[in-house]
Amino acid sequence: MKKLETREDIELLVNTFYQKVQKDETIGFFFNDVAKVNWNEHLSKMYKFWETLLFGQISYKGNPMAAHFPINEMVAMEKYHFEHWLKLWTETVEELFTGVKADMAVYKANNISQLMAYKMEMARRLS
Q: Which CDD domains does the record associate with it (predicted)?
């Protein structure tokens, strides 16, 4: 198994993950039907996002939380959706990579999924 070390590795990870997401019965519809994601744009953002998180390259500029609130208003993004997202992410990381950065990718994704699930639930309760 290869270590997660380069921008090209991030691109492979993100592309492989989102290929799964697009076909996924549990969360794919958020991307395909609700948000109607422009995949070229989204993938480019995700490369930068993960490169920033894992390598400290400050290439991502944006607010991931703010991007999810409008989707959550259309269709509730619930805890089990984020848990499923995390499961797919973890499987993809573990299929492709090993080492400290791979472990960090899973750890950070776990934190992201928990925070996003909490924030989306709070937003629904307050609306």
A: TrHb3_P (cd08916)
